[in-house]
Design a protein that fits this description.
Length: 130
Amino acid sequence: MKRFLIGCIGVLAATSAHAQTAAPDTQVVTAEDFMLNDAGDLLDLCTAEAGSAVAREAIHFCHGFISATYRYHESLAPKFGRLVCPPEGITRNDGVRVFTEYLQANPQHQTNAPTEVLMESWAAQYPCRP
């Protein structure tokens, strides 16, 4: 646990330093984005610029959150029904792409909950047929 906390402090320090030195026209991942207060934060993490000081962490966080959301949906589906029905062969990268394209095309949803927008985007792309 101590190592985890030290790692988190390191990520927060790196994001703060990067935010202060990045050019004004580049997208910056901030420590606040990792709190996932809204779908816009998740979008920032999923679209982190490769040169960002915390791009690797941001992308891994994005993929982990998206994978966990889908796994949670799958675990509830037998009891409550499916909301999303992707075809065979869909990858985690496809899930990220669908989410980012959806939110970029629908910025009015940026302040909604990340899981809400994830499920909306996936249901729009991969609707379940009766």
